[in-house]
Structure formats: C-alpha cells, structure tokens
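Mods, move this if it's the wrong board.
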Amino acid sequence: MSELTPELERKLGTAVERMPAFPRSVQRVLELTRNINCMPKEIVGVIEKDPVMTMKIFKVINSAYYSLPNKITSVGQSVIYLGINTVKNLALGFAAVGILPRTTPGGFDVQRYLLHSLVVAGVARQLGTQFAKGEVEPGDCYVAGLLHDFGKIVLAQFLPAEFHQAMAYAAEKRIPLHEAEAWVVGISHGPVGAMLAHRWAFPADLVDCIRDHHDPKVSSVLLDCLRTADQIVRLRGIGDSGNPWLADEPPLAPQRFGDDLEAVIAQIGSLDRIVDEAMVFAQVAHE
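Not the wrong board. Structure tokens:
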C-alpha cells in the first residue's frame, strides 16, 4: 500500500473524529483492569454508575444462556459468578454495539457484521484458553476479536462508494477484502480501525493488533488467536464481515494450531455455544 494522499488522510481524520466517543465508564474499566492490583470493587463501582450498562449486563447474565441458579441483582454478584473479565467484556461489547450504526450508506450489513465479530471474539477467547494458556489473557483475545474489523464500519459510513467498490472488486477478483481496500480506497480497514482505537485511548497492544491483523510480517500470540478465529468463523460462514472464505486460503498460524482448521474446530468442540452466546448478546444489546 502506498503512502496516503493528503486528501485521503484528511477524509479519514474527519471520519474517525465523527465516530461516537467510546463511553468514559468503559474506558475507565479498561484502565483499571490493566492494573493487576486493581480491586474488583473499583470496577464494580464504575459499572454501577452506568445504569443502562448495568441493566444490560443483568439481562444477559439472567438469561437462559447462563442458567444461573439464582437471579443476579448486583454487579458485585455478577463478578462473583462470572469473573471480572467476563463482566468487563460484556461492558465493552455493549459499548461497541452502541456505537455501531443500524445501517450504512454503502449497504454493508451491520447486523451480520456484528454476529461475525461476536463469534470471532468468542472463538479467539477459546483458542487463547486452550492453546495459549499462560501466554495470553483470553479476555484480551475476546476484545481483539470484537474490535478487529471496526475499521470497516468507518469506511462503510464515511467512504461508502469506495468501500462498496472494494467489496465488489474483492468478490470479482476473489481476493481478500483488505487487499481490495488497499487498491480501491488507498488504505485497508486494519490501519483505519487502529486510528479509531487510538482515538478511544485503547491499550497500545490492542491498537497494534487491530492495525496488524492482516500484516503477515507481524506475529504474536494474540494475533495467532485472532487470525485463526477469524478464519474458522469465515470457513463456517457465520455472520458476514464482507470478506467471504476463499477455498485456497492457507491457515494463518500453522506453527501454533497446525494446518488443518477442521481439526482445530474439533478440538474446540461445537461452535454452537459460542454462537448462542453471541446471539443472546446481540439481542440484548439492541433492546
């Protein structure tokens, strides 16, 4: 990809600035959870000050999906039953969904994009748990999966003609969408998403992961889990990120997961539970 033209740089800067701000309460939760000495009560206190967030967390936790023996009526109880990372991820997820537009000018299917992102997040978390124990925090894998494609939302909203043309070009030439974006738009969704994550004051490692998730020269445990999760979800056709599975795609992290994605899926077990979790979450998020 060539250097950005001044005109494209200006358009992208304006687009990122026009995206809604990430809720301060959730940014504060992310700041607190970076400190290993943080007390759960501090995080609970921040979430409890956001009544809409609190209500949605209760709806998910008290749903049939979790089937808890008793109804949860406080954020503190939620942390006891599910752990602070799960509660943090719920808060982050609701904030991200709240920022998503219902529709985009370019006809990008936001709801199918959301399902794709939520399932990638769940699969990445599972991969981190099973294949990278002690090397990566599974909650970080979830967050990376949830937010890795957010640059597509920026492009679909603020450069809709170019983004639509890139999707059409990718389908016609049967190439990955990020390559088509680079040709048509002049930049791919990874760096655009990183610009947005930086504006939202996310941790540097998450910003880097969003920027580099299509760059084969960059490798990390977090990227391994994210890239493989994305491939698994696209292979199974769950949701739609505008980047359909290509039959000749090689596995992107063979050193960690091997060269057979179906074997990885078999080790994870059924994806049904992860999809069910995503659908419950998406339903509550839009209420």
